[in-house]
Amino acid sequence: MAIVSLDDQKAHMRVDFNDDDAQIQAQIDGAQAHLEQLLGYTIEEEFEVVPTDLVQAVMQLAANWYENREATSGDVPGVLPLGIGTLFASGGTTRSDGSEPRPCAPHEGARRHP
Fold first, then answer.
1. 48 within a domain of the structure (yes/no)
2. What range does the domain containing 11 cover?
3. Which among 21, 28, 44, 100 is least buried, having the fewest CB atoms inside 10 angstroms?
4. pTM of the entire predicted model
5. Cα(112)–Cα(114) distance, rounded to whole angstroms?
6. How far is CA 31 from the centre of its chain?
């Protein structure tokens, strides 16, 4: 299940029409799966209450993918939006009980992001 609802994502992106709902939902699902791959765990299994920074990371990544659906020559491939890179640079987040989640372990074949 996605940690970000379609309605919340559309509000975040200021999308007030329904034509792209399937595309936006797919980007939400893909963004969460991508972050979980980078983190090395399933977000909803790690946290009783999902931390706001992870919700924001999914929203930022899904919005970035929505706005940049086509490959462009000026973009640097493999670079995460600033807020998401900062989350990983800081070592991630903590559980609602204050304990640390399992350490991030890169999956085999996963690309490292700056």
1. yes
2. 6-89
3. 100
4. 0.69
5. 7
6. 4
CA-to-CA dists, residue 106 to 15, 41, 60, 89, angstroms = 34, 10, 21, 14
Tell me, yes or no, whether 110 lies in a domain: no
> Which tokens is 113 given?
């992001």
Q: How many CB atoms sit inside 10 A of residue 19's CB?
A: 8
CB 62 within 8 A of CB 30: yes
User: DSSP letters of 56-79?
Assistant: HHHHHHHHHHHHT-S--TTSPTTP
Query: How many Å apart are CA 103 and CA 51, to the nearest integer?
Result: 16
Residue pLDDT, tens place only, 15-70: 999 999 999 999 999 999 999 998 899 999 999 899 999 999 999 999 988 988 77
| Residue positions counted in the chain | 114
Q: Rounded CA gap, 21 and 15, in Å?
A: 9
Tokens of 102: 């399992």
Q: Does any domain span residue 61? A: yes
Asked if residue 17 belongs to a domain, the reply is: yes
Q: Which of 90, 110, 100 is nearest to 36 (CA)?
A: 110
